[in-house]
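User: Working on a comparison across species. This one is Ketol-acid reductoisomerase (NADP(+)) from Cytobacillus spartinae. Can you predict its structure so I can line it up against the others?
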Amino acid sequence: MAKMYYNGDANENYLNGKKVAVIGYGSQGHAHALNMKESGVDVVVGLRKGKSWDKAVNDGLEVYSVGEATAQADVVMILLPDEMQPKVYKEEIEPNLTNQALMFAHGFNVHFNQIVPPNTCDVLLVAPKGPGHLVRRTYQEGAGVPALFAVYQDVTGEARELALAYAKAIGSLRAGGLETTFKEETETDLFGEQAVLCGGLTSLVKAGFETLTEAGYQPELAYFECLHELKLIVDLMYEGGLEGMRYSISDTAQWGDFVSGPRVVDDRVKQEMKAILKDIQEGQFAKGWILENQANRPVFNAVNRRESEHQIEQVGRELRKMMPFVNRAKDKQKEVVVS
Ligand code: NDP
Ligand code: MG
Ligand code: MG
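Assistant: Here's the predicted structure for Ketol-acid reductoisomerase (NADP(+)) from Cytobacillus spartinae:
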């Protein structure tokens, strides 16, 4: 098994006397800033004027422009949306860099050369393997979300020590830290969200729903069967792996799992997964996404609109209205985002 790092592996005092600037106050930003503050770290937040600025001030944090926060910090953690990072970096962060340590929560921009850090800075990442709101909530509960950490450039010889101290301060070393590289973190994160967590799953759910409704079954029933119930199954997998889930389902369901699962996800699907991984590794996916953003997202917006009109969404919206306990406020939906 790979070596896992826990609280005892981090130097408690490493961040003493250092100032950390958290740039961005969204899903990850608010969690990192507040957790670190409560862990005793000297934190400031870097933002533009707006919604997040007001929220961070209300949460009791010191807030500056991105440039001012960068200039006064020893450690700069960039928690802006990935597609915004290159521009903000070029215009507001880079001009204020001397020898600060530069940190990320995802390796995309550095790995694909959209951000090229100066050779005077340590460059590292701490990537919690979970949504920001859980990074915050689990910290408050005395637990944490596991994190990957990686060093890309080590000028001071202390980059690894910083990564561990930072991961500890946001609560992640309570759950476990795993060392990786920018390349491995970037490629596996993109693959996971495309093939399994987001892309694979939404396509599986829709195909199941369409198969039932096209055969004349009620859409409401198909929604419960193929989408709603998924959470209960995934919770069991989260708690006990595949075997834990299979322990709880009926033997009939388990037999169906064994004989039909491999018919759904067959060799052709696996070959396609390999092709998706290759596109990621060779930069094809990154290129497409970067160009899509430069063109103001025509495909993203068109598909997003079409998807929101799918029957499964229309039926689901109606059914969830009657289940207020699952119908969470819009501002909390970010919590279920995989990034
Ligand atoms: P969000 O989309 O939640 O962050 C948005 C924040 O960035 C807001 O505070 C927004 O402020 C601010 N912002 C946007 N544009 C600018 C700008 N031009 N100048 C200043 N501030 C700006 O990002 P995430 O937390 O989802 O992602 C941050 C990083 O963490 C990414 O690298 C991502 O890959 C990584 N990550 C995310 C995970 C997640 O759970 N979402 C999981 C693991 C890693 P405003 O209110 O002004 O718009
Ligand atoms: Mg991810
Ligand atoms: Mg991601």
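For your comparison, note: Residues 24-29, 47-48, 50-52, 66, 79-82, 84, 88, 105-106, 127-128, 131-132, 337, 339 surround NDP (ligand 1) (CB under 6 Å).

User: Helpful, thanks.
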